[in-house]
Amino acid sequence: MKNVLTFAFLFLTVVAFAQEETEEQTKKFTLNGSIDAYYRVNFSAPNDENAIAPGSSFANLPGFALGMANVIASYEGKKVGFVADLVFGPRGTDAIFASPMYSATGNIINQLYAYWNVSESVKLTFGNFNTFLGYEVISPTANFNYSTSYLFSYGPFSHTGLKADFALSDDFSLMLGVMNPTDATEFNPTGKYAFGAQLGYKGQYLNFLTDDGAYEIDFTGGFDISDSFYLGINAAYFDNDGVGFAGVALYPQYATSESFTIGLRGEYFKEDSDFGAIGTGVEDSSVFATTITGSYSIENFTIKPEIRLDSASDDAFIDSDLMPKKSLSSFVLAAIYAF
Description:
Elements: H1 2-26, E1 28-42, E2 63-76, E3 80-88, H2 90-95, E4 109-117, E5 122-130, H3 150-154, E6 158-167, E7 172-179, E8 194-201, E9 204-211, E10 214-224, E11 229-240, E12 243-255, E13 260-272, E14 286-298, E15 301-312, E16 317-318, E17 324-325, E18 327-338
Antiparallel strand pairs: 1-2, 1-18, 2-3, 3-4, 4-5, 5-6, 6-7, 7-8, 8-9, 9-10, 10-11, 11-12, 12-13, 13-14, 14-15, 15-18, 16-17
C-alpha cells in the first residue's frame, strides 16, 4: 500500500508539473522589429536643397538617409495578449504624423493594443492598430517595394478604437470596428467616430471605412500564379464630398532563387477635383508610377535596389534647371535588417 501511495503521489506531481509547464508554454513574450536605411538619388531632378521626390510616403530624403528603428514587444497568452510597437526615426515620425497631441514632442507609438480571444472564432482588439485597408504597410519588412504607393500614402495609416474579428468559416472572415477619426491616436479630437468593416475570403479582402461623411472602399488581395510567381492587387476609391481619389496597383513578383526576387509595382492614381496628392495644383490630375525592385536576402538582412518612374498628367515635378516637368525618375538602394 505504501508503494502504491508513493507511486500515486509521484504520478500526480508529474501531471501537475506537466500541466503547469504546458500552461507556461502557451504564454509567450517576444521582442522583434527591424532597422532600415537607404540611399536615394534623382536622375532627372536636383539632388541638393532643391531635391524633390514622388508624392508618396517614406524614402523621400536625398542622399544617404535613415528609415526607422522599429521595436515590437508582444505577449501572447492562451486567451489574451498585447502588442507595443515603437518607432524611431524619420519613417516612424511620418507614420504617426496625425497624432493630435504628442507627435511634435516625441510620440514613438506606432501601435499599442490589447486583445482577447473570446472564442476560437471571435477576437476583440482594443487600442491603436495599423489600418486594415490597403496592400502595403508601414514596416519595410512587410512590403516588397521599399518606396510606397500613392494608394498607401493617402489611405489611412492607423486607427484607435475597438474592433471585432470573426472567423465565419475556414474560408470567410469578417471584421467590424468603431474608431476615432482616421489617424487620431491619443484621443478623439472631434467627438465623432469612424466605422470600418472587412470581409475576407481565402486571402482576398473587401474593406470599407466611413469617417464623418467621407468613405473609402478598398480591395486587397493576391494570387500564387505558380510556385515562383505571385501577383498582388490593390484597388481603392475615396470620396469626401466630391474630393478624393481612385486608383489601382498591380504587384507581380518573380522569385529566381531562394535569396533573390524581382518585382514590379505598376500603379495608376487619379484625383477627383483637387485632392492635392500629386501636387500639380490642377483638378482631376493623374499619375502613373512604375517601380522595379530587386530583393536579395542574406539571413535576416535584405538589400533592395529600386528604380522608380512617376509620370503625371500635369506638371508635378521639376527638372535639373528647376523648370516644371511631368515626370520624375529616381533610384533607391535600401538596407533592411529584421530581428
